[in-house]
Amino acid sequence: MRTTLEAQPALAWALVEPAPGLLLAPLAAPALRTEHAVGLDLILEGFLLHHGRPRHLAIADDGQRVLAGDFCYAQGLATVAASGDLDVVDALAELVALSSAAVAQGAQEALLSLWAGTIEVIVAPTGGPAARFRTARAAFRERGETGPLTALAPELRPAPGVEDALGA
Q1: How far is the C-alpha of 43 from the C-alpha of 30, rounded, in Å?
Q2: What are the backbone angles phi and psi of residue 102, rounded to the nearest 5°?
Q3: Are 57 and 5 in contact (CB under 8 A)?
Q4: Which residue ranges make up each domain of the chain?
């Protein structure tokens, strides 16, 4: 994660040392593949630059924050795409869109389930919680229903790094 952002001259000046344990790679069990974890972490940083408190970049200017967030979203998706796993790219692209929609609709209660459910789909795509998450995610996407997502939350793997980042 740091290497990705340090290599960008337009962002390296704003890089701050994250607190220990904030990178997401070891926080799912079974663990996320490295490229999936780096991609997810970049996407989370992009989301936080747009809608919260970023962990890795300190940028005060709103315009620069939006551009840095867009970069992190794109770099995260590109990192995962390079692994050739298009199902994960699709899951993360949907996460970006639905997380922003949740904020726009004032449905922040759905955020943790969206993120934890997406991790579930990545690490165990055929498991029961992943299938139920896909159904709950569709209800939110198609009808704006947050109930199925929030009801599913206890079945999803804990995501402490995401919980901390989202303030959940």
Answers
A1: 20
A2: -60, -45
A3: yes
A4: 2-166
Residue 57 DSSP SS3: strand
Instruction: Give the type of residue at 119.
Output: I
| Number of C-beta neighbours around residue 138 at 10 A | 13
Residue in 61, 124, 55, 58 with CA at minimum distance from that of residue 91: 124
Say if residues 159 and 22 touch (Cβ distance below 8 Å).
no
pLDDT tens-digit readout, 26-60? 444 457 788 888 889 889 999 999 999 898 888 99
Q: Which two tokens stand for residue 20?
A: 């220990």
Rounded CA-CA distance 90/86 in Å is 6
Cα–Cα distance between 43 and 100 in angstroms, integer?
A: 12
What length does the chain have? Answer: 168
pLDDT digits (tens, 9 = 90+) for 97-124: 999 999 999 999 999 999 999 999 998 8
Distances (CA, A) of 97 to 9, 16, 22, 126, 151: 27, 27, 23, 23, 21
Retrieve residue 130's tokens: 């992943």
